[in-house]
Input
Amino acid sequence: MWYLNMNAVMAMAGIAIVLGLTRRWQSNKRWLMLAFNLCFLLLFSQKLFAFYLGYTALNYLAFLWLSYAKRMRKPLFIGLIAANVAAVSSLRLLGMEVWTHPAFDAVITLGLIYNVLKVIDALYFAYFFGTEARARVLDYFNYILFIPTFTSGPILKFRDFMADAKQPYQVDAQQTEASIKRIILGMFKKIVVVAWMTEVFDDVLAGGLHTHESLFLMIWFYALIYFDFSGYSDIAVGFGRLMGYNIPENFKKPFQSPTLTQYWRNWHATLGDWFRDHIFIFFSRQTPTKWTAAGLSVLIMVLIGLWHGFTWLYLAWGVYHGILLALENLLGKTTVNKRKVSRAYFWFRCALVQLFVTAAVIVYGGTAETVEKIYRGLLNWPW
Output
């Protein structure tokens, strides 16, 4: 959300320039980024700053505790993850007004569903590597508070970020040019394309819907959220790389995915990777059987659905995609090698995947009333 605020954009451009000018100071990336991340949050919201200062400090202490614990490591590991999930869930329920409290402020939930995934990734690292999982306090704070990816990802991996933090600032002219072009592309998507597409979507939705109009809205909305989120990711990747960190790609040609298994490795790739890595690692250390993989697929997609929101719609979305992924696993259809099949078959499989995704993508379209109206319109034949 920072990227629609010109002051925020100028601030991120400014720190990138400062980092470039101070590149002779080998620790500039660590200390200047920490100062920037903290000052940015403080200026944006004092409540958000105070919350994240406490939240990050507590989780760093938890990270150290788990790293050096000699006994009861597994119960401690599970307990720390459960505590973070419970805290985030409680704040989300407060935001949904399932229950209320006068001390609650919606701003403190900003970016939390992404940042809790980073906290858990660090805990996994501490659990599996013990005392070798070392991280300086300023690097840990930068990892959690990294402004370019703070609100909507891409989700940074703890090990990769720590490796980047140890490297001096080394962004050259070619990288700067590529990053700036990436930011401009993302801005164009967000400010021009998405704004226009949203206006068209709202205009069509406002009228009575028939089958063809509902189909149009489902396809149109799918394209809209692609431009919206890929635009955000482009900007985040561009600014992150200008600051000297290798931000992972979130969209890897998802429309050229011949199976849903491959699709979820290419669409919002860092989120899918996070859930696969952490759920499979925890529940299946060895190569899973087809039935185990199918069951874990359902679990992962249900968790991803609930991660997006505690609603019946998101739960149904997760079950729907989980069943489709489970079927791919049971039938041995999780991958298609483009080089070993005909072009017609490959593109038929890609089109089939997009059909399955489009059928449920409108769940992200806002209120339950909006989703219901569009699905009802599918049954409203114009003749």
